[in-house]
Specification:
The protein is of the alpha+beta class and 195 residues long. It has three domains: 72 residues; 49 residues; 56 residues, Head domain of nucleotide exchange factor GrpE (Nucleotide Exchange Factor Grpe, Chain A, domain 2, Roll). It contains four helices and six strands. The strands form two sheets. A three-stranded antiparallel beta sheet has the order 1-4-5. A three-stranded mixed beta sheet has the order 2-6-3, with no helix packed on it. A hairpin with a 2-residue loop joins strand 4 and strand 5. Helix 3 runs antiparallel to helix 4. Keywords: Chaperone, Cytoplasm, Stress response. It is found in: Cytoplasm. This is Protein GrpE.
Length: 195
């Protein structure tokens, strides 16, 4: 009796149904695996795309910052250049003020003096002082008289027949002195050349 009851209690399992359930489970598991692989691939594609977008954003940001920094640099250097040009002559002008004072004293002295020699001597002293200041700043006279004519230093005003053969192609007379500032010509000497 006990045996009969046990048999009755045991569920009757149909072999066909068991196989179907197993196939369905395998199919569901396979579908789940395929869909999770697709999700992983999609996630990787999205993450790669997101990474590229982040890199693109970072590079654009870096470019904009660099462009703004360069623009600020250009403005700053332009401002410094303008300030330099405005104050470049300041040192020279300040050093020339004593010469200007000396000229004013010389002009006052000419009002009451009859001694031309002392007046001439005073003017020569002021000229020497002025030349000394300018020489300290790098100004030099171009020596032209009896020198060969050089287009890099001289400007020929006219040609005259040379008095001697050795003066042909040389400077015979200097009409206006030429000057260099730190070895760069700032005014060409105006000269008369022998032909």
């Amino acid at each position: 009796m006990f045996n009969k009851k046990k048999k009755e209690e045991e569920p009757v399992v149909d072999q066909n149904k068991t196989e179907e359930v197993a196939e369905n489970t395998d199919q569901v598991l396979n579908d789940d695996a395929t869909s999770s692989e697709k999700e992983v691939e999609t996630a990787q594609e999205l993450s790669a795309e997101e990474k590229l977008q982040q890199e693109n954003t970072a590079l654009n940001d870096k470019y904009l910052r660099l462009f703004a920094e360069f623009d600020n640099y250009k403005r700053r250097t332009q401002k410094e250049r303008v300030e330099l040009l405005q104050t470049a002559g300041k040192d020279v002008v300040v050093s020339l003020l004593p010469v200007l004072d000396d000229f004013e004293r010389a002009i006052k002295a000419t009002e009451n003096t009859t001694d031309i020699d002392s007046l001439r001597e005073g003017i020569l002293l002021v000229q020497q002082k002025l030349k000394g200041i300018l020489t300290q700043r790098g100004l030099k006279e171009i020596s032209s008289k009896d020198a060969p004519f050089d287009t890099d230093l001289h400007e020929a005003i006219t040609q005259i027949p040379a008095p001697t053969e050795e003066l042909k192609g040389k400077v015979i007379d200097e009409v206006q002195k030429g000057y260099t500032l730190n070895d760069k010509v700032i005014r060409y000497a105006k000269v008369v050349v022998g032909a």
